[in-house]
Design a protein that fits this description.
2-enoyl-CoA Hydratase, Chain A, domain 1, enoyl-CoA hydratase activity, enoyl-CoA hydratase, NAD, eight-stranded mixed beta sheet, alpha/beta, Rossmann fold, seven-stranded mixed beta sheet, 20 strands, 713 residues, 3 domains, N-(1-d-carboxylethyl)-l-norvaline Dehydrogenase, domain 2
Length: 713
């Protein structure tokens, strides 16, 4: 044994050939501080080994290395001097692998991401099996590679390919990786180690010139000034167009490769260290790392709940076809769970099937969906006008019109049709689950299952627990949502549940700005371009549907009369009364059409001001942001204090996945913590005269005074 550590070991497997194998306790290998230290020690041992002829780098797991241990990041990054020392030391460990006086080959199965990819880049050769997935996803955490990836990858696959990979964080499967020179060979899984040893022997014998293969990674990038100018100018333009100003990491990725292009390895690595450390201190990196950790918490909680479910969902029923019902049926069917789609009108069934076919057709156009998959998915959807087709389903998802009397009647009827152990859910967006449950004889098997439109794109499913809902019901519905490829978050019952409850104060803040004469295109521009929402509040209202929003104001006013009173003279009510429903009928705040090429067009028609009144007031961007966001943040805090949502992390993920809260801000609680609780309280107090929704809770005020945090990380 050359080296034995808890997370990896090194030993000879053949004469002169040593295997460095990552073998951490648990299901995956990752570069935490302990593993990096052992990796360094193991390489020191190899450098001292006199009989060494070649080194094979492998993993004992089904996957190679999933990257760095993200759980260490936020603590580490809080101390900039510690971060500087850590990244400089850690990155030089990979130099030790690259500087071995013998050839090295990495044998990769499964994921080699982040630090895993950087480890195999430090090897001379890379061979993978058909399961391999290779990439540098650090940009998705608001960072750049920190273990030499920005230095080695451009010298291995060229600067154009490297910049595309690093700035997008895209993963590469074997064929793509081979085509761009990221790997040297592909083999089948059970031959991987043998093929890697064979390649290593060819390098040892001189049939492969490993020294020539290694040399470019140690030198400046081999490109002339004109090539570099074109490469980096193009990259900067593409990154700005895609990432904009809110995400510094892709811009830093271009800068680090450009500045390091004329330098040998050590100087280029110093530049990488410098920019990596700089990014660790940005709000965007803290937010995006926080998202990753919150996502892991939510997924772990969901998987644990799903494992405890006693009922398995093998066949689903969807009540109500149309766009939403068709979307739900499609999502179930495409993931392999047959869905019976029931409606009382044939034209609605046709609409639901057409919705599924349209989604699949777009997938075929993009080369993402095969004709076989189209056939399988459509065969998994059974349209029917008759209840008896639902007798053998395991779960019902009711998706009829958003009317409590209609929903109640449908739910009561279907309870007498389905099996006694079938689960019944409602895809309501605002109506109380307890109110709907009163129509059922057995409310224990009933809960809310709120999908977001468009169903196939939006990751979130809100699972709403009623006062009588059993935990077994919740667990089974969580498991079904996971089967559908969704992220389920469990919330407790209240008007609007969580996402819509906090969304409507945001709309109310927007409405007050309109009342004060601020024009809606300006508000949208500020909230999109400066705050970072994918859509401003006027545009979002049109997408949700003005009639839907207007209906929801009744529900919210009934539930929270003092904080969310209905404004009969507000823009939403006026537009609804004028039959301007938004995108669904082509006119709301904006008007919608298509140009000569069939591309969608959104524009302001001056006629809208005849409905909502002329807007001659003005407000600075900071005031627009404050007046829209303070009501939302306050309501998020109230939901947390009321026990509607279980944790700040789940609240943040619900807003990110449900309504597109800007990822670089990390969610409502991360945004609040980044601003600082005291500063937020001071800002809210400035606008407290505008009404109860601007007034902070006593709980928030106490936390601000005590310097406490809502987040666990």
């Amino acid at each position: 044994m050359i080296y034995q550590g808890e997370n990896l070991h090194v030993d000879f497997v053949e004469d002169g050939i040593a295997e460095l194998q990552f073998d951490a306790p648990g299901s995956v290998n990752k570069f935490d501080e302990k593993t990096l230290n052992q990796f360094s020690d193991a390489l020191d041992a190899l450098h001292k080994e006199s009989g060494l002829k070649g080194v094979l780098v492998t993993s004992s797991k089904s996957t190679f290395i999933v990257g760095a241990d993200i759980t260490e990041f936020l603590t580490l990054f809080s101390d900039i001097e510690k971060t500087k020392t850590w990244v400089h030391k850690a990155s030089r460990v990979f130099d030790k692998l690259e500087d071995l006086q013998v050839p090295s080959v990495a044998a990769v199965s499964g994921f080699a991401l982040g630090g895993g990819c950087e480890a195999i880049l430090a090897c001379d050769y890379r061979i993978v099996d058909e399961t391999a997935v290779i990439g540098l996803p650090e940009v998705k955490l608001g960072l750049i590679p920190g273990f030499g990836g920005t230095v080695r990858l451009p010298r291995v696959i060229g600067p154009d390919n490297a910049l595309e990979a690093i700035t997008t964080g895209a993963n590469h499967k074997p064929e793509k990786a081979l085509s761009i020179g990221l790997i040297d060979a592909i083999t089948v899984q059970d031959k991987l180690k043998d093929a890697a040893i064979s390649m290593l022997k060819d390098a040892i014998s001189g049939d492969l010139d490993w020294k020539a293969k290694r040399q470019p990674k140690l030198e400046p990038l081999q490109a002339n000034d004109t090539e570099r100018l074109m490469t980096f100018s193009t990259a900067k333009a593409l990154v700005f167009a895609k990432a904009g100003k809110h995400y510094p990491a892709p811009h830093a990725a271009v800068e680090v490769v450009e500045r390091g292009a004329g330098e040998a390895r050590e100087s280029a690595l110093n530049i990488e260290n410098e920019l990596f450390v700089k990014l660790t201190q940005t709000d965007a990196a803290r937010a995006q790392v926080g998202i990753f950790l919150a996502d892991q918490l939510v997924k772990g909680k969901s998987k644990k709940a799903a494992k405890s479910a006693s009922k398995q969902i093998k066949r689903a029923g969807v009540l109500g076809a149309g766009i939403m019902g068709g979307g739900i049926a499609y999502q179930s069917a495409v993931k392999g769970i047959p869905a019976v789609m029931k409606d009382i009108k044939q034209e609605q069934l046709d609409l639901g099937l057409n919705e599924a076919a349209k989604i699949l057709g777009k997938g075929v156009e993009r080369g993402k969906v095969s004709p076989k998959k189209v056939a399988q998915t459509l065969n998994n959807i059974v349209p029917t006008l008759h209840n008896n087709e639902l007798e053998n389903v395991d779960i019902i998802v009711e998706a009829v019109v958003e009317n409590p009397k209609v929903k109640g009647a449908v739910l009561a009827e279907i309870e007498g049709v389905v099996a006694d152990d079938a689960i019944i859910t409602s895809n309501t967006s605002t109506i109380s689950i307890d109110r709907l449950a009163s129509n059922l004889k057995n409310p224990a098997r009933f809960c809310g299952m709120h999908f977001f439109n468009p169903v196939h794109k939006m990751p979130l499913v809100e699972i709403i627990r009623g006062k009588d809902t059993s935990e077994d019901t919740i667990s089974a519905v969580i498991a079904y949502a996971l089967q559908m490829g969704k992220t389920p978050i469990v919330v407790n019952d209240c008007p609007g549940f969580f996402v819509n409850r906090v969304l409507f104060p945001y709309f109310a803040g927007f409405s007050l700005l309109l009342d004060d004469g601020v024009d809606f295109p300006k508000i949208d521009k500020v909230m999109e371009k400066q705050f970072g929402w994918p859509m401003g509040p006027a545009y979002l209202s049109d997408v949700v549907g003005i009639d839907t929003s207007d209906h929801a104001t009744h529900v919210m006013a009934e539930g929270f009369p003092s904080r969310m009173p209905r404004d009969e003279n507000g823009a939403i009510a006026k537009l609804a009364a004028a039959n301007r429903y938004g995108q669904k009928n082509g006119k709301g705040f904006y008007e919608y059409s298509t140009d000569k090429r069939g591309r969608p067009v959104k524009e302001v028609n001056p006629e809208v001001y005849d409905v909502i009144g002329q807007k001659t007031g003005d407000a600075e961007a900071d005031e627009i942001i404050a007046r829209c966001m303070i009501p939302m943040i306050n309501e998020v805090i109230r939901c947390y204090e009321d026990g509607i949502v279980a944790s700040a992390e789940e609240a943040d993920m619900a807003l990110l996945y449900g309504i597109g809260f800007p990822p670089f801000r990390g969610g409502a609680f991360r945004y609040l913590e980044t601003m600082g609780l005291k500063k937020f309280v001071e800002l809210a107090d400035k606008y407290a005269h505008l009404g109860e929704m601007y007034q902070v809770t006593d709980g928030l005020r106490k936390k601000a005074e005590a310097g406490e945090s809502y987040l666990n990380s």
